Amino acid sequence: MLIQGAEVDGVAGVDVRIDPGEGGRTGAGRIVAVGRGLAAQVGEDVVTADGGALIPGLHDHHVHLRAWAATRWSVPLGSVRDPGEFDRRVRDGAVSAPSGAWLRGVGWHESTGGALDRYRLDALTGARPARVQHRTGAMWVLNSAALRVVGAENAGPAGIERDASRAPTGRLYRLDDWLRDRIRRAEPDPFPAALSALTGEAAARGVTRFTDATPGRDQSETDALAALAIPQHLTLMSPPGITGPGVGPHKIVLNDTTLPEAGELAETIRGSHRAGFPVAVHCVTVEQLVTLLAAIEDAGGLPGDRVEHAGVVPPGSAVRLARQGIAVVTNPGFLADRGDVYRRDVPAPERDWLYPVRSLLDAGVTVAAATDAPFGPADPWVAIAAAVTRRTPDGEVLGPHERIYPAEALRLFLEDPDRAGGRRRIAPGQPSDVCLLHVPLEVVLRDPSSTHVRATFG
Ligand SMILES: [Zn+2]
Predict the structure, then answer these.
(1) What pLDDT sits at residue 190?
(2) Domains of the chain: which residue ranges?
(3) Distance 95 CA to ligand 1 centre (A)
(4) How far does residue 63's CA lie from ligand 1's centre (Å)?
(5) Does domain 73-186 sit in CATH 3.40.50.720?
C-alpha cells in the first residue's frame, strides 16, 4: 500500500510504500520505499495522509493479555469502600463485558459492599448473568438470569439458599464445583471476544506490537496466544523450554522473600544465554536490582537482556546497567496512576530513585516503556505524557530531575530492545507496521494523547 503526503522525520510531503507481508501476521512486512512523488501501482491501496506524521507503530513492551482481557468480565470488589461504590463497579462491569459473557465479581464483603442477594444484583446487571464471590470464597451470589442458566430456580443441591416461598435468594454456599460445571456448559469462553475488543482499542491508540510478560506460561497457552488473530505482532516472554513463533526473552521474576544469591541467579542467566535467549528480569526493589547487577556482571550481558520495571534505581546503578548493555523497560504510567501512593509510602531517599528515565538515558542505557496493562493504565500516550511531566493524580511532580522531552518519551515506545537493529524508523527495509497521526508530530508532542492517532497499518 502507498501512504501519500505524510510528514516523516519533520519533512512534509513524503510518500511511503509498505508491503505488510503475509497478512501482516509474521512481522516479515517491510517498508519498501520512502520518497517524493511515488506513483500508485495498479491495484495498490492509497491513503492520503494530509500532512499527518507517519511514525513506526507503538510497541507496548510489557503487558498481560489474559489478565487484561479478564478485566472485561471480572470486577475486583475487595477494595470498595461503601455500597455505593460496589453498585457503581458492578453496574459499569455489566455494561463493558463482552456480549453473551457472564459478569464475575470477586472479593465482596458485606461490611464494605453491603448485603447482597439476587434482587440487588438484578438491579445492577439486568439480563446479563452475573455472579459475585464472597471474600471468604465460601459463597457465590447469583442474579436471576444466572440462577435460571444454572438451573437453580426449582431444583439443585443443598447449599442453594431459599426463602420462605422456596425461591432461591441467590446465595449459594460451597457449591463451587457444581457451579463451575454448570457455567462451563452454558457460557462461551469470553476470552476471544474480550481480547478482540481490547486489541482493537489498542490499535486505535497506535499500538502495533505487544510483548506479553506473563511468567510461567506453558506450551499450550503459548501456542494458543501465538495463534490468536489480533492486529498486533506478539512477542511472548517465556520460561526456558518453550518454543514457537514469537517466543522471546526468558522471564525471571525476583521477589524479596525468595531472592536467590547473585551466583545462583548468574547460573540461571548463563543457562538462558547458552540456549540463545536473553533474559527479562522483573526488578522492583533496590535489593532485587543489586542482586541482578551482581549476577549479570558475573554472567555477562547478552544483547536483548532487559530489566522489567526497574522500580527503584539507586545512584551508580545506571552506569553498571549500561556497561552490560542491559535495557530497562520502565512504566511511567504508574506515576500518573499511583504516584501519590508512592509519595506517601515510599521513604526518602528511594522516592527520588523511582521509575527513573533521564538518568538512565544520560548513562547510555537503552530505555523502552510499557503500560503493564492491566496493572497500569493501558494507554501508552498516558505513559508518554507521564514521562514528560511526572505528575501524580494530585498534581505533584515526582522526581522532577527524571523528566524527559516529549520526543524522547515517544521513542520509549519505538525502541526494540529485543532486536539488534534497535529503534525502528520510517525507512526502506524497516518493519512495515506504522502509525499515521492526524497532524504533524510537533503538534502531537505538545499534547501527547491517543486522540491524535488516525490509523495503524502493516
Ligand atoms: Zn507485569
Answers:
(1) 85
(2) 1-57+425-458, 73-186, 194-423
(3) 27
(4) 6
(5) no
